[in-house]
Amino acid sequence: MDWLSLEGVNWLAVAIAFIVCFAFGWWYYSPAGVWNVWKKAAGVTGEQMEGASMGVAFAGTIIANLLGVLLLAILMVQLGAESWVDGLVLGAIIGLVFRAGAHALHNGFAIRSPKVTLLDGLHDTVALALAGVVLGLI
Amino acid sequence: MGDIPDLRGGDGQASARQRRACPTLRHHGNNGTFGARTGGHVGWFDLSEVEWLGVAIATLAAYIVSFVWYHQRALGSTWSRIAEVDPADLRDGRGTHAVFAVPVFAITAAVMCVVQAELLIVSIAGGLLFGAVLGLVLRLTWGLMHGAQEFRPVALTLIDSFHDMAALAVIGAVLGSFL
Fold first, then answer.
1. How far is the C-alpha of B66 from the C-alpha of A14, rounded, in Å?
2. Domain for residue A107, yes or no?
3. In the predicted model, is pLDDT for residue B32 greater than 70?
4. How far apart are the first and last CA of chain B?
5. How many angstroms away from the CA of B141 is the closest CA of chain A?
6. Residue A44 to residues A35, A40, A80, B70, B120, Cα–Cα distance (Å)
7. CA angle A80, A83, A88 (to 5 degrees)
8. Does A15 reside within a domain?
9. Geometric angle at alpha carbon B174, from A79 and B27, rounded to 5°
10. Confidence at residue A56, expressed as pLDDT on a 0 to 100 scale
11. ipTM of the complex as predicted
12. Which domain holds residue A37?
């Protein structure tokens, strides 16, 4: 587990990358982004929205983004990925392979709309790529 | 190379095991230069690091994990009920989905192989832990995030995410034995 070390991690960069990642998600799933298309494709109803606990959803989003950015930062340090291009490539690869791949696999078996796979996969890939850029820049 | 022993092979690259034995050769046999990049390419991403036989066996192993995990006698029937997917529909479409799963596992294994080789994760236990950590962070937490946003049952996300953790851990372990 030598690779799983916090040594060399720039915590300021992690904090800013987390904010960027979170802000991107906020915009992406807003009416200004893909909300209306995504809501329809995912089959999310107004009734579900009314009964939802936004606190749980936010907490989950914060934890996921924070851990994702931290793991990306650790991998960048350990791989010697030091520039924003390195961060962009690593973040995009991780997002595409480990996140979009998961959406494709599970949504395919669950016979869900390919639009959900596309929109969620795109979000995860771009979010992690942006986080990688920030981590590489700072 | 100065006093650094030359462990690199005929292709000028040290294997992952050789680099682990000689820390000064860490990171892609680049004479110890941390994060060196050449020719405008991202130095850490090199497909020559990929052990293709290991990737093929890791893909097969992950597929077997999936087959067992989602078998009707394991979690398949529970998953179908929670996901509100008629097993008959699943059986009809299984061929298509199964074929689609193979490239996903294969690409995942190839990328993990590149990263494990760079990080010198060259043991079964090390690979197992690496895959499990990737699964925990990138599949479980992100899966729960999307599941909550889409109002999907938590049990469904947990079944899928723990499957992913197991599959990635197995891929990592197989690759660790090959590197």
1. 34
2. yes
3. no
4. 24
5. 5
6. 10, 6, 42, 26, 44
7. 100
8. yes
9. 20
10. 79
11. 0.92
12. 11-45+52-137
pLDDT over 90 (residue B8): no
Task: Please answer yes or no on whether A3 and B130 come within 8 Å at the CB atom.
Answer: yes
Residue ranges of E strands in B49-179: none
Residue A119 domain-assigned (yes or no): yes
For residue B70, what are its two tokens?
Answer: 């989602």
Chain B hits for A44, Cβ within 8 Å: 150-151
Closest C-alpha among A22, A3, A19 to residue A11: A19
End-to-end Cα distance, chain A = 26
A85 contacts chain B (CB < 8 A) = yes
Q: Per the structure block, which two tokens stand in for B119?
A: 């990080």
| A80 part of contact set with chain B, CB < 8 Å | yes
Q: What pTM did the predictor assign?
A: 0.85
Q: CA-based angle B95:B96:B97, to the nearest 5?
A: 95
A-chain CB neighbours of B35 within 8 Å are 79-82, 86
Cβ atoms within 10 Å, residue B85: 16
| B34 touching chain A per CB within 8 A | yes
Residue B2 has pLDDT above 60, yes or no: no
- The mean predicted confidence, pLDDT, of chain A is 92
Residue type, A71: L
**What confidence tens digit (pLDDT) does each residue in A50-79 have?**
777 778 788 889 999 999 999 999 999 999
Asked if residue A1 belongs to a domain, the reply is no
How many structural domains is chain A composed of? 1
The answer to whether residues A92 and A36 touch, using CB atoms and an 8 Å cutoff, is: no
C-beta neighbour count of B53 within 10 angstroms = 9
